[in-house]
Amino acid sequence: MTDTAPPVAVPTPIPAPDQRAERLAREHLDGLAKPLGSLGRLEDLAAWISACQGSVPARPLDRVRAIVLAGDHGVAEHGVSAYPREVTPAMVRTFVAGRAAATVLAAQHGVDLRIYDLGVDDDLSGVPEEVTRYKVRRSSAPLHLTDALTEGEARRAWDAGVAITERVIADGTDLLIVGDLGIGNTTPSACLIAASLGLPAELVTGAGTGVAGEALQHKTALVATALERVGERAQDPWQRLVALGSADLVAGVATMVTAANAGVPILLDGLIAVAEAVTAEDLAPGVMAWCRAGHRSTEPGQRLALEKFGLVPVVDASMRLGEEWRPGRGPAGPVRGAADGLDGAALGSLGCARCCPRSGC
Description:
Blueprint: H1 19-30, H2 41-53, E1 64-71, H3 87-96, H4 101-108, E2 112-119, H5 129-132, H6 151-170, E3 175-181, H7 186-197, H8 201-204, H9 214-230, H10 237-244, H11 247-261, E4 266-268, H12 270-283, E5 291-293, E6 295-297, H13 300-309, E7 315-319, H14 332-341
Parallel strand pairs: 1-2, 1-3, 3-4, 4-5, 6-7
Helix pairs in contact: 1-2, 2-14, 6-11, 7-9, 7-10, 7-12, 7-13, 10-12, 11-12, 12-13
């Protein structure tokens, strides 16, 4: 990473979650009427939520909100996806109509889901203005041939991400889920992870919507070409976004920086959100401490990034499309449960002080 300052306001460093609250939360959990550590990852999540809130025990996560950022990608016209990018505007309309799997599940489980068009290659006529008001352009440019965005477009996308997030936080948010929608989005995400972690294209490029064989080889070669084209510029996280990102990805990075700086915990949805988080950490060190991985994607780039930052996904169900995340019942469900349910009877109240190995007897 270089020391070049980005042409946008980036708070740094991001204040860390409350370590004292985390320690007290773990002591509180150890004192409950259960074997030590018996609830496994739920205890880790509960302690993390306590640290983010500075509260022991953690307050219930009553206001879970999901932001889905939509955009098309110029590389989609170059054989990297099994589906045409006309699917993207169709899916946006499906989200708006409340008929997408994610919107149905969100409604069932009380998750407020909002979708925004940052770069869909369609005018989206008839779609409510609040969905399209932050549109930067129609599709990014093909990143293996030229920069995905201009500097001005990247700044507009950043400002949009900040505005969207500030509005969501002002409405009250206990947990923020960040997702993405757009055919071809796994290609820029693979590029961002490769550039961020210093990895070659063949280690980070996956099947995306289902490409295999020669098509996957072509996609991998395209990622390698893009990385070679950008060269040392990719060491600078802002230039990385301009050259290899897209309007929706830049807005996603801005969303995470803004939420983390406001002390709002973030649940990452799959490969694209993880690529955004890795880049956000480079721009504003400390962001990753406010993030947890919602699910493990089949994409190799996501796995390598999670390992790098020690993030263990809440759900591991071999999912690979952002449309498949399960607000409330899936990744957000265990996090909610960790905050809501891990406050039971203490061992001392059960008369166990003399027989419990934790009592020192």
